[in-house]
Specification:
- The protein is α+β, with helices and mostly antiparallel strands.
- The protein has one domain.
- 32% of the residues lie in helices and 16% in strands.
- It contains 5 helices and 6 strands.
- The strands form 3 sheets. A two-stranded antiparallel ribbon has the order 1-2. The protein has a two-stranded antiparallel ribbon with strand order 3-4. A two-stranded antiparallel sheet has the order 5-6.
- Strand 5 and strand 6 form a beta hairpin.
- The protein is globular, with a radius of gyration of 15 Å.
- The termini are far apart.
- The model has no long low-confidence stretch (mean pLDDT 97).
């Protein structure tokens, strides 16, 4: 694993607005500090460069691991996971008032499934944060 300098970490954090670039949880509402994720993992040739890094909450980073794609159960096609540097979040997902993140595309479906966006405890937490107006 490559060392990520504090200045590079800060640049990624500022660009992300301190929010997980996958599920959009703000770092101040997370139990653990957010982590720097290699969008394309180093084991796949991904470089430690701003264009290949994003801010991820610990659960999203753990669930994603080094995955790049998955099988979309609706289309039966292999589809890439959401790419925070190339994709627009609102194209692939919709945050609902009940805390669910609804996938809108095949990429959204595989990402929501692999990163386990809608596990019960996170849906409840997002709903609570939405009611407080901070999500």
């Amino acid at each position: 694993m490559t060392y990520i300098s504090e200045s590079l970490r800060k640049a990624v954090e500022i660009r992300a607005g301190s929010r997980c670039e996958y599920c959009r949880l703000h770092e101040q509402h997370s139990y653990f500090i957010h982590e720097i994720d290699h969008i394309y993992a180093e084991k796949h040739g991904g470089e430690t460069h701003k264009t290949n890094l994003c801010l991820a909450c610990a659960p999203c980073n753990r669930y994603k691991g080094s995955d790049l794609c998955s099988l979309d159960h609706e289309t039966k096609q292999i589809v890439p996971l959401f790419h925070p540097r190339q994709d627009i979040w609102e194209t692939h997902f919709e945050l609902q008032l009940d805390g669910l993140i609804r996938p809108l595309t095949p990429t959204g479906r595989v990402t929501a499934r692999i990163l386990n966006f809608n596990r019960d405890e996170m849906v409840a937490e997002r709903e609570r944060l939405l009611q407080l107006g901070v999500y």
